Amino acid sequence: MALSLRERRRLETARDIQSATFRLARDRGFENVTTEAIADAAGISVRTFFNYYANKEAAALGIPPQFTEAAKDALVNGKDALATDLRRFLRAHLDRISADDHIVRELRVILRDSGKVRWMLDEHLSGLRSDLAACLVQRLPDGNARLAAVLADWGINIGNRTFESWLAGDPGVSIAATLDGLWADNVAVAGILTECTG
Amino acid sequence: MALSLRERRRLETARDIQSATFRLARDRGFENVTTEAIADAAGISVRTFFNYYANKEAAALGIPPQFTEAAKDALVNGKDALATDLRRFLRAHLDRISADDHIVRELRVILRDSGKVRWMLDEHLSGLRSDLAACLVQRLPDGNARLAAVLADWGINIGNRTFESWLAGDPGVSIAATLDGLWADNVAVAGILTECTG
DNA sequence: CAAATCCTTGCATAGTGTGCAATTACTGCA
DNA sequence: TGCAGTAATTGCACACTATGCAAGGATTTG
What we know:
The structure is a homodimer of 198-residue chains. With 198 residues, chain A is an all-alpha fold. Helices cover 78% and strands 0% of the residues of chain A. Chain A contains ten helices and no strands. Chain A has helices spanning 5-28, 35-42, 46-52, 56-61, 69-76, 82-99, 101-113, 115-139, 145-168, 175-195. The first copy, chain A, starts with a helix and ends with a helix. Chain A binds chain B through residues 80-84, 115-116, 119, 122-123, 146-147, 150-151, 153-154, 157, 161, 182-198, and chain B through 80-84, 115-116, 119, 122-123, 146-147, 150-151, 153-154, 157, 161, 182-198. Chain B binds a DNA duplex (30 and 30 nucleotides) through helix 1 and helix 3.
């Protein structure tokens, strides 16, 4: 077996806490949920809750996905235009997120209500940004770190906006379609930007 | 007089609290500063502290500047290329910020230490982003709101990165020069982006 | 089985943030 | 000037957040 009993239980408890948080947030609104209530609902002590998550916002967010090694490899060694490979990269990540329907649907409401959860998501995005920048340095022909940082920033940003816009919009629209729309807008903005650099 | 005694005192107390926060943060590090200590140092009760600021992070941040009406007018009615006017707009705002040397120098350290202060700054930036988007809708020939939102997002983003990079870099470099450098990088990224939209 | 390790828990404690009501300080108006 | 209204300050009580510590229980490893 890949995971020991201890590890499996730990994961399970972490999930139980997250579900309990979602359930309570649905019932009474996230801001009215206390760590004590979550601990009770999850069948653990408050002290144990804090062994799993630093606060109730972390419990709601859980552990958002990182980029996969496969996706990073494909970006670094891609043979298409950089813009094409980058869009594919973002799309793959967004698809993985949207596949976690169960969790995303619950988070949707909580993200609206809680600035602190949005902030924690932003902190996560900062990590992804560094990760992406590191890939792009390898991919760029001249290894230009400053350019990689700006491009990574831009990529994470459009990914984030895509997620937000997809969350806020019509449930029937796929996240890939949302990304394509935003991508087109960004290309238009890029045109405005290069129009005159005086 | 423009401000009543009450209003002047209120402003003064708000400033006193901020200075006290800075002083204590310098002495013992921001994370080791309590609201009680700030209140004591500012010569007020803890309860009064909370009448001014929601928490110590807000006390450190103070009230960051909004865009001026004059700058917004210049952007909406500007006659140069949009990219040129936008850059001027950002530069004007960044200049105003960097002019507040006293405060920015103290914030520099605190922003490094405290994620929560960075978050509150981000919340402020969200407000600026909406503000800027509203201007850009008026400025864009077709009143395209989606495009305005993306462009505003881009503008706020580069402004933010400029500020961060300027804070982190050589004190001798002006914020305008930092903006120009980042602007050039972004133009290059815009080139990559439009290179292939397949 | 025994030792090492990790997990859970209660308890103590420091700090955060808000509601309420009493008091004090300013403001506007007669 | 003086008085009524309004805003600011404060103490107190209270609920909640978060961490350190140490005791006891469960799991792992050999």
